[in-house]
Amino acid sequence: MQLKIALLPGDGIGPEVIDQTVKVCNAVAKKFNHKIQWMHALTGASAIDAVGEPYPEETHQVCINSDAVLFGAIGDPRFDNDPSAKIRPEQGLLKMRQKLGLFANVRPTFTFPSLIDKSPLKRERIEGTDLVFLRELTGGIYFGERGRKDKGSTAFDTCTYSREEIKRLAKKGFELAMTRSKKLCCVDKANVLESSRLWRETVQAMEKDYPEVKVAYEFVDAVAMRLVQWPNSYDVLITENLFGDILTDEASVISGSMGLMPSASIGEDIGLFEPIHGSFPQAAGKDIANPLATVLSAAMMFEMSFGLLEEGALIRKVVDQSLSEGIVTEDLVESFSKAYKTSEVGDYLVGKIV
Ligand code: IPM
Ligand code: MN
Questions:
Q1: CA gap 231, 334 in Å, rounded
Q2: CA of 245 to the centre of ligand 1 (A)
Q3: What is the pLDDT of residues 66-92, one digit of tens each?
Q4: Strand 262-266's sheet: what is its strand order?
Q5: Separation of 12 CA from ligand 2 center, angstroms?
Q6: In sequence order, which residues have a C-beta less than 8 Å from that of residue 54 and are 6 or more positions away?
Q7: For a FRET experiment, which of 29, 49, 181, 182 has its CA 20 to 30 Å from that of 339?
Q8: What mean pLDDT comes out for the span 31-60?
């Protein structure tokens, strides 16, 4: 099969974890007789530095002319510490999500048996955790009206959702639930927010189309609590953009390291695959970042964008092997004796793909 993949390394540790992932993908392609055409493009602070904007039109063209996008990370402290900056790397990510119509962010959280004791939570609370968040990604407070009034001394951001936006996200949630344990949790704040009441009303009206799915409605504050108490009681969760942003960071540490969790952003057409961690600037260029979240994002890409399930499964298998054999970067090293470099972990994975 011919696979055309846009490659957007981005900022910080992005290029390093992407390099290892490309090595792994090429090894998989060789084994299964695929041909990958990598289309390189700029995003984030590196794009601002090069051409003055974080998601240049040229990058957009590369993305829409590819079958999938593999993305590293975005963000740079030079911009974080300057609230008056007009152009920010993160705007590139938001623009990319919007222009590519990526309205659903799929963020799984699962545990690895060899890392169970690395989790900040007790073993009995997390064993068996295997949940997926579907976070709405192109609406809500991220994209609502915002501004200043009272001569700049008051600021506002608004959360707006249409029934259609909720419906298309919820549909993906119901469909995913049907392929799993048929449990869906709608996370909202319907006791306070009008937009949440529309979420609840819309999802309730869809229940009749999926009679086998058991839907629970829970408030976001309660979910934040239960996620650390009994994460293994959840399966598929759907929620709006900001709630999803916060809860998926919370959920990501359950596995033992944020450097392990992959994600996919999907919508009408092309899919984008990225680790859920950020650009981790303190580690950039040191060859110490954990590449596994990006490698696992590539597994999701093989499965979801190309329907190549065996290829995805092989990647997951070699990642499991690296963890159980202790070939891991320093974020996981407490459980093991020696820390390996980012590139050494990549080499190990490639060596196992034969
Ligand atoms: C994420 C990130 C982004 C978000 C930032 C970088 C804009 O935190 O992908 O979760 O808030 O969506
Ligand atoms: Mn986030």
A1: 23
A2: 7
A3: 999 999 999 999 998 888 888 999 999
A4: 35-40, 2-10, 68-73, 271-275, 262-266, 104-110, 130-136, 236-239, 183-188, 214-219
A5: 16
A6: 43, 44, 45, 47, 48, 74, 87, 88, 89, 90, 91, 92, 93, 95
A7: 29
A8: 97
Closest-CA residue to 229 (of 84, 126, 120):
126
The CATH number of 120-255 is: 3.40.718.10
* Helix then strand then coil, % of the chain, to nearest 5: 50, 20, 30
Q: Is the pLDDT of residue 118 over 90?
A: no
Q: How far is the CA of 248 from the centre of ligand 2 (A)?
A: 7
- Of the two residues 336 and 17, the one the predictor is more confident about is 17
Q: Which ligand is nearest to the CA of 94?
A: 1
Range(s) within the chain of domains with CATH label 3.40.718.10: 1-103+284-354, 120-255
Give yes or no for residue 336 having a pLDDT over 60.
Answer: no
| pLDDT tens per residue, range 291-313 | 999 999 999 999 999 999 999 99
Q: Tokens 């058991």 sit at which residue? A: 214
Which residues does a 6 A CB cutoff place in the pocket of ligand 1?
74-75, 90, 93, 245
Q: Whose CA is nearest to atom 10 of ligand 1?
A: 245
Whole-model pTM over 0.85: yes
Sign, Cα dihedral of 44, 47, 53, 57: negative
Class of domain 1-103+284-354: alpha beta
Tokens describing residue 334: 């407490």
| Catalytically active residues, by annotation | 142, 189, 221, 245, 249
pLDDT for 335: 52
pLDDT digits over 178-204, tens only? 999 999 999 999 999 999 999 999 999
Q: What secondary structure letter does DSSP report for 341? A: P
For all residues of the chain together, what is the average pLDDT?
96
